[in-house]
Amino acid sequence: MREDSRPDPDALLAAIRADDAKARRGRLRIFFGMCPGVGKTYAMLEAAQRKIAERVEVVVGVVETHGRAETEALLEGMPIVPRAKVEYRGTVLEEMDFEAIMLWHPRLVVVDELAHTNAPGSRHPKRYQDVLELLDAGIDVFTTLNVQHVESRTDTVRQFTGVTVRETVPDSLLDVAEEIELVDLTPEQLRQRLSEGKVYFGERAATAGDNFFRESNLIALREMALRLMAEHVDRRLRSLQPMLHREPWRSSDRLLVAVSASPHSAEMVRWTRRYAASLEVPWIAVAVETSEPLGAEDEKRRSANLALASQLGAEVVLTSGTHIGEALLLAAQQHGVTQMVLGKPDGPPWRWLWRSRSPVVWLIQHSGRIDLQLVRTEGGEASSQKMAGESRPGRLYQYVVVLGIAAAATLFSVLILPLVGYWSVALIYLLTVTIAGVLLRRGPTLLLAALSAMLWNFLFIPPRFTFSITEPHDVMMFAMFFVVALAVGHLTSLIRDRERLEHRRELRAMALYQLTRRLAASTSRDETVREVLAQIKKVFGLNAAVLLRDDSGAFPGTPHHESTWMPSAKEEGVAAWAFQRKRPAGHRTDALPDADGLHLPLLVGDRVEGVLAVEMRPDTVLAPEQRELLGAFASQLAIVAEIQRLAVVQRHAQVLMESERLQKTLFDSVSHELKTPIAAISAALEQPEVNWEEIRAANQRLRRTVEHLLSATRIESGRVKPVPEWCEPGELAREACTMAAAGDRVQLDVDPGVPLLRVDSGLTTQVLATLVENALTHGASPAPAVLTVRHDADKVRFDVADCGPGLPPGTEEKVFEKFFRLPGAPTGGVGLGLFIARQLAEVQGGTLSAENRPAGGARFVLTLPIGGKPQLPE
Amino acid sequence: MKPIALVIDDELQIRRLLGVALEGAGYLVREAESGSHGLQAVSTLRPDVILLDLGLPDLDGLTVLRRLREWSRTPVVILTVRDAEEDKVVALDAGADDYVTKPFSTAELLARLRAAQRRAQPREESAVFSQGGLTVDLVARTVHRDGAEVKLTATEWSLLAMLIRHAGRILTHRQILREVWGPNAEEHREYLRVYFTHLRRKVERDSAKPELIINEPGVGYRLRFGPA
Asked: Strand locations in A321-397, DSSP E?
């Protein structure tokens, strides 16, 4: 064993450690406090200093000392990553340099103020997202957090302090933390510190003390912090002792929260998260899509609410139906929900009790075994989607149309009244209500029904022009008309709504179906990408780019060339992120939301095939169902792309197998061809009288084998590049004969009228020489071989004919295959000569074929294109 | 006194083989295993002929040749591997006298060495060239094939006169093109094919089996001079 090839044990160990580090997730330690000033940063830095003393590599990502001298002293001797400067609307903001930390890749990084919101244009909108990625990269993180920044507590904080907290951290982050260390001070101590100016300085200290740091606030905040801490400890304890605290009945519980476009929906989502966390049960957030499309503003709000739910750990479910209550109940039953959380309707009871269509009321009546939780929110009915939009011009316009229809129907009725009587007029009104039900929304239709009844009564039922009815049958008629009109209007608009919903669903299904069908028919990657992009353009009206992984599974450098959108370098960076993290990124997602594009990873299972990057204009809002459809497109593309890639891989494998088979043949025949002459030479040398003739023959054979092998290798590796020049065909033929050492055994017959030929003289000579040699070897006949050169239209044709036994039938093509040797052929040769000859003819645009002559013997025909006319000097 | 042959080649086996062959043919053989040693040896030994391998470990053969040609006119025969036409041509353009392709036959090598030496010897500038039934009077500008006068065009005459001036030596395509048609024509090898075809028809006994104007495939032309 050679010394230098032995692996160095130290290097091995280092490599193993590096692998470990990659696989390992970083550990998060949160220094948790009730409010600013309790000394979290100080405690964190102290802990970091202890780590440094233990020789752990620690760097400071970001620390806010707020000018506190004691804290600053603790930073002594710690490497600090300089802050990145982010320019935003003319001002330069300083942010933690996330990229630099990732590059540095220390063992532990200190990141102050977890709830911080990054400047627009940063990698993530929130600092806690930076931290999560650092953890993913295997870096430990120390960080600080105040209780009022915990997402599920913000409402409570607002209620008793009146301060709306905008910077929040999802509760799930606390579950991620390995350790939460409570940094606690009594309110008196804190106020003491505050008055000593240890927290804030000067004037700010005074105002802070008056407002936020009121003793009542501090007590409440402290209680919240302690409670949260207790919950965390409790959960940890239970997870450590699963046997002791198994509570099986709880696992069957499941919560559902209805999410709408209402701003109060967010509050309900947070409430549900808190409730679910305390019960330790899963929860789902359901949004119902009705036939009435939401406006852009509502759409945005609903998306935000759903995103919040997803962020807080809910499973998000989208469903559709004409009746919100029904749809919610169906979703609840399908997902095995045991409790539903709904917004408590406000206002006096008569207002909502009378609205029998209110989903809440309906659900109270129909929820059966599912419990309902009605949560009071501040003003508003959370699961009603009729928030904004009542005054939208579309609706107003429909009411105007209704008035028009009523007027027209009345006019018509007045005209035909003398002919048909006032009972028939009722039918005309009913007809208009039915038509309106098909064309218009429910509100206007019901208005028309009521209006018709009134008009009929006022204008037509005697006594006319009064609302009073005298005849009993007229009273009955009017009552029936009123009921029928309302019922007809209600039913037709219900049918219309269902149809419209059905239609939208069908459109989506159609789009997906069409895409699937086209993808199934596409045979190449180019075609697949083209089809997907065409469908995206057609269905969403958006341009997009597709970035498919390369053969090694790495992120591609450039988008596929069929892409209809060329992402900028920045956008490609976002796409790369989505690719690596296997998560959607960009436009209105939680990663890099400022990007122009929405970047969806193409996932098949957990394998990522690439990224679908869709160009979004700043005002583009995708409804959840559109977003879902786009996701379905991406999945389809991913599956097809993977299948196509695997097909290529399989083809490669086949080629590899074929080449292995060839290699074996090559090895066998080559080793034979090399060993035989060497054996001959050895034998010849060992005889008392050295047999020079034998040695010469063996030498010749060796030489030819080696040359053939080298030529074949050069051809196969594509290194043969013909250098065409004008040659005289007769001269090529003569040189070939010289090269083949043909002497007088070949008869040359050159047509004197053959023009100059533009070919590579060396390669052509080699082809002809092979043919001549072949003719001399195989055409074992005393009659000489004949080489004729003829002009044939725009080609020159070289015929090499022999008078031997000819080729066995059916081998005319086979003789040009690699390693093919005619059965019973004289020994010698690896079966490469003709293979090489044909390749050399073809790289020059010529052909080489074989045939048997009618008169007996074989003929090889080489044709080469003349290649124009030589240019001559004047 | 025996002529001195200097072999510059890094392969011991080739040097040994050439040594045996050349000594057998009456040469005094000296060896150098690298380009720099070779250059040194040329200046101290003053060899009569040099065999130079193009693939050397330190300086490549071409560099050695160019440096050598700055101060010495000693005939140089290049040793090359097969299929490296371009290298041969470059070496010939750079001043090599001839080349031999490995693997080579000893007889061929010795013939080329002799021819190269012969050309290097000062000889009388004869006004009349005669070979294989062709007689050319360079002063009177007349050409006779087996006693019959042959008319040449101006270009054909230039070609023939150039070949005669360098009789026996290979002229590369580029060298001929540059001298006869000027530097702009260096890449137009088709000129050569056309004019040599015409020239051969006039001066060769059988233009289908040329005996005087020999084609060196991929490299150039040579006029046969002397017995071999």
From this structure: 339-343, 371-375
* Number of Cβ within a 10 Å radius of residue A724: 16
Cβ contact, residue pair A873, B218, below 8 Å: no
Judged by DSSP in three states, B59 sits in coil
Q: How confident is the model at residue A140 (pLDDT cuts 50, 70, 90)?
A: very high
CA distance B198 to A680: 49
Residues in contact with A155: Cβ distance below 8 Å, sequence separation at least 6, in sequence order: A267, A270, A271
Interface of A with B (CB under 8 A): 703, 707, 725-728, 730-731, 734-735, 748, 750, 756, 758, 761-762, 765, 870-873
Nearest CA in chain A to B208: A730
Taking alpha carbons only, the member of A406, A237, A259 closest to residue A319 is A259
Residue A647: what pLDDT?
85
The neighbour count for residue A294, using CB atoms within 10 Å, is 22
Q: What is the pLDDT of residue A202?
A: 53
Query: Whats the size of chain A, residue-wise?
Result: 874
Q: How far apart are CA A338 and CA A332, in angstroms?
A: 8
Distance CA A826, CA A830 (A): 11
Helices marked H in A109-255: 127-136, 154-161, 172-176, 187-195, 202-210, 215-240, 248-251
Q: How far is A725 from chain B (nearest CA, A)?
A: 7
pLDDT class for B7, splitting at 50, 70, 90?
very high
Q: Which residues of A touch B215 (CB under 8 A)?
A: 731, 735
Distance CA A416, CA A409 (A): 11
**Regarding predicted confidence, which is higher, B169 or A11?**
B169
**CB pairs A-B closer than 8 Å:** 48
Closest CB to B208: pick one of A725, A730, A870. Answer: A730
Q: Which two tokens stand for residue A55?
A: 């020789």
Residues of B in contact with A872 (CB under 8 A): 190-191, 194
CA-closest candidate to residue A153, choices A277, A292, A17, A5:
A277
CA–CA separation, A306 vs A317, rounded Å?
9
The residues with which A200 forms a beta bridge, in sequence order, are none
Largest CA-CA distance found in chain B, in angstroms, rounded = 56
A231 confidence band (pLDDT: 50, 70, 90): confident
pLDDT digits (tens, 9 = 90+) for A568-615: 888 888 898 889 888 888 887 777 777 888 899 998 888 889 999 999
pLDDT band for position B6 (cuts 50, 70, 90): very high
- Which residues are A58's β-sheet partners? A108
Tokens 């035909």 locate to A416
Rounded to the nearest 10°, the torsion over CA A506, A508, A509, A515 is: 140
Q: How far apart are CA B44 and CA B38, in angstroms?
A: 10
Give the bridge partners for A650, in sequence order: none
The DSSP element (H or E) to which B114 belongs, if any, is helix B106-120
pLDDT digits (tens, 9 = 90+) for A627-659: 888 888 898 888 888 888 888 888 888 888 877
Q: Residue A220 — φ and ψ, nearest 5°?
A: -65, -45
Locate A636 and state its tokens.
């389809």
Q: Which residues of B are less than 8 Å from A762 in CB distance? A: 83, 85, 217-218
From residue A637, how far is each of A178, A529, A609, A647, B209 by CA, in Å?
39, 8, 9, 15, 68
Kind of pairing, strands A725-727 and A757-759?
A: antiparallel
- What residues contact A208, with CB distance under 8 A and at least 6 apart? A194, A199, A200
Contact A532, A545 (CB under 8 A): no
- Per-residue pLDDT of A76-94, as tens digits, reads 888 888 888 887 777 888 8
Residue A864 has pLDDT above 90, yes or no: yes
- Hey, are the CB atoms on B190 and A735 less than 8 Å from each other? no
Single pTM value for the model: 0.43
Contact B138, B127 (CB under 8 A): yes
